[in-house]
């Protein structure tokens, strides 16, 4: 399924996406998902996540801001999604920064996400390597993270995506690179977390590898167009939401994707 | 009290509005309330809500994101508001989506809010009907929710407001419709939640039915004007905040309201 | 160290800033800090704050939205920062509004922050005076808060900064006033909280008094320029983030600062 067909399916189905994400990302991730054409729902209570995950088209879990209670909710939601064959996406934000965070990421990865997305430092560290990330920012290049991504994809049977200037996506057997975007994107907080939410939207309407590529192309296309008239991260962010919304099936350039 | 007089009172008094709202809405609801002319305060700790609600001009409670502790705070704040004759607004976001959420909405409704606001699916389901909502989005028309709204208003002795392309507001005896707004509004997350916060601001300075109508007209007027030059949900949101702020008493068109 | 040299150091080092801030401020504070040139990390879990604070360049604590668990995290983070000689900033939002909030502010102040920032009402009340604040908004003038600020600075051995139309900053021995900004700034929620996060960024690269002055000048300069073309709080906020990002060393006017 090519990116444009996936976008067409997304617009037609407007899937419900259950997002457990961090406090910083909550609003922008919902706005990104809405602008792209899906229906986000941010639901975290342990009392209800297992009831909600199965009725959603996809679940996304981002560990940016944690608490004991939310970690319980994350696990319960992932288990419920698995039982209901609902695809789910894991975003292990800065998992290398503290022992607590590392343990949460490891426990969630063991629950077999459908898609795993991070920056280069996060993916390298998750594969056991020594990255040089600083908080939520990557200190490593996407190229350096490719073998880590392939290894994780094979070991955990999931799609692994590495965000960066050129993104890298693999299911262990097939891989793709996606170009585009803007260097203003890392200057807007939580855009990576928002891409995780968008991955959920696409995973609800397309097979996981194609869904991942489509979400990254949608993001890269909108980012590159939004940067044209932006004078900084504020105006970029506004134009980015507008462009996610106005892009139509047919607008996602195939030339952004290199398969191998 | 006509909408323009209520706006004049709002600007003159800049009431303190105690908001318990969800994580997605927190920032935009505060910005909407500030832009309109009030002073929002987001306060949730069980240790302090009962001290704060009585000193505010109004309280608003939105169940978008829940936890055991927050539900306790919501109830304690509502009880304290009632004791101090502070008006309060209930927004039962997606209460039909899980049993936990349904119970919380029911318990809060039993505490007798001054104003109840929801989309059509939420109001229909709260009255016991079978709506077709999906997460936080409505799947039903405002027209289909009118009798449910009237029934709830009579049964609970409150104003009930249904948001949609044409809004419907009733206290069981009198009803009003409000036109305006933009189809970009549902594409910006948490604007409904933000309207709930604005309802609190108006309820602090005007009788509940007139306050509700005024808040909806302020919202509809700002939404319609903001959409003029918007190219998507990002630029709409920016223009919407600007317009909420720049609208002056006299700018709220009476023709938006139909009483019956 | 003059403001421009501090900005140069900030851009060169892009310090990691550990922020414990409120739900309303979380996104805008991260965006302000990122736009200015630092790397914010919002981390709150009791299980990890003491591991994270020592690896950050600075810590900031804002009490805007509280819970028992977060108060524990705030204290643990402050203690860990002190042990590791990491500077930390306290923002006692609306501490006078409830007894709970007042106690939390007092307990944190006893842990000896490097910098204390508030509006006039907050600083007056913290020094034991009777201010006239309303929620998060000040009801007092910066002038009226100067002696309270000087007293707090001497008693607690920290820099105290009072935000307002003309800001006042003191370490008890030296004091400075900073002019600039825009009257649209109080119409954007959590900009004061965002300044607290930016204070952390500067405190990571400069001595505390100079860091505080530099952060206020950066804010004032960006605010004044952003207001030029803004038509309300929405467009102001966008231009403000753009300007924080595009200002370069050399752009921070010395004439904004009056030392005495």
Task: Provide structural commentary.
Three copies of one chain form a homotrimer. In chain A, a hairpin with a 4-residue loop joins β7 (about 165-170) and β8 (about 175-180). The model of chain A has no long low-confidence stretch (mean pLDDT about 95). Chain A is about 45% helix and about 15% strand. Chain A is built from ten helices and nine strands. The longest helix of chain A is centred in the last third of the chain and has 20 residues, at about 210-225. A nine-stranded mixed β-sheet of chain A has the order 2-1-3-4-5-6-7-8-9, sandwiched between helices. Chain A is an alpha/beta fold and about 260 residues long. In chain A, α2 (about 25-35) packs across α8 (about 190-205). Chains A and B meet through α2, β2 and α10 of A and α2, α5 and α10 of B.
Structure, briefly:
The structure is a homotrimer of 260-residue chains. Chain A contains 10 helices and 9 strands.
Annotated CATH topology of chain A: UDP-N-acetylmuramoyl-L-alanine:D-glutamate ligase
Distance between the termini of chain A: 16 Å
Mean pLDDT of chain A: 96
The CATH class name of chain A reads Alpha Beta
Low-confidence stretches of chain A: none
Instruction: Supply the helix-strand structural class of chain A.
Output: alpha/beta
Number of domains as seen in the coordinates of chain A: 1
Question: How are the SSEs placed, and which strands pair?
Answer:
Three copies of one chain form a homotrimer.
Chain A: H1 3-13, E1 16-20, H2 26-36, E2 39-42, H3 49-52, E3 58-62, H4 68-83, E4 88-91, H5 99-109, E5 115-119, H6 120-126, H7 146-156, E6 159-163, E7 166-170, E8 175-179, H8 191-203, H9 208-227, H10 233-246, E9 257-259
Parallel strand pairs in A: 1-2, 1-3, 3-4, 4-5, 5-6
Antiparallel strand pairs in A: 6-7, 7-8, 8-9
Helix pairs in contact in A: 1-9, 2-8, 2-10, 6-7, 8-9, 9-10
């Amino acid at each position: 399924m090519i990116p444009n067909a996936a976008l067409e399916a997304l617009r037609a189905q407007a899937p419900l996406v259950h997002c457990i994400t961090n406090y910083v990302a909550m609003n922008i991730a919902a706005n990104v998902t809405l602008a792209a054409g899906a229906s986000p729902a941010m639901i975290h209570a342990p009392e209800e996540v297992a009831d909600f995950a199965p009725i959603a088209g996809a679940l996304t879990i981002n560990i940016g801001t944690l608490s004991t209670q939310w970690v319980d909710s994350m696990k319960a939601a992932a288990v419920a999604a698995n039982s209901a064959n609902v695809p789910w996406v894991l975003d292990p934000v800065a998992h290398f920064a503290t022992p607590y965070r590392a343990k949460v990421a490891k426990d969630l990865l063991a629950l077999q996400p459908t898609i795993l997305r991070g920056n280069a430092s996060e993916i390298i560290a998750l594969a056991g390597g020594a990255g040089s990330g600083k908080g939520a920012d990557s200190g490593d290049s996407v190229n350096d993270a490719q073998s880590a991504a392939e290894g994780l994809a094979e070991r955990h049977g999931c799609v692994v995506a590495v965000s960066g200037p050129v993104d890298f996506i693999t299911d262990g057997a097939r891989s793709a690179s996606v170009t585009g975007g803007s260097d203003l994107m890392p200057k807007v907080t939580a855009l990576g977390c928002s891409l995780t939410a968008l991955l959920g939207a696409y995973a609800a309407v397309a097979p996981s590898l194609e869904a991942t590529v489509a979400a990254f192309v949608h993001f890269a296309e909108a980012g590159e167009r939004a940067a044209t008239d932006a004078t900084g991260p504020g105006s970029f962010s506004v134009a980015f939401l507008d462009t996610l919304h106005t892009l139509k099936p047919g607008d996602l350039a195939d030339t952004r994707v290199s398969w191998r």
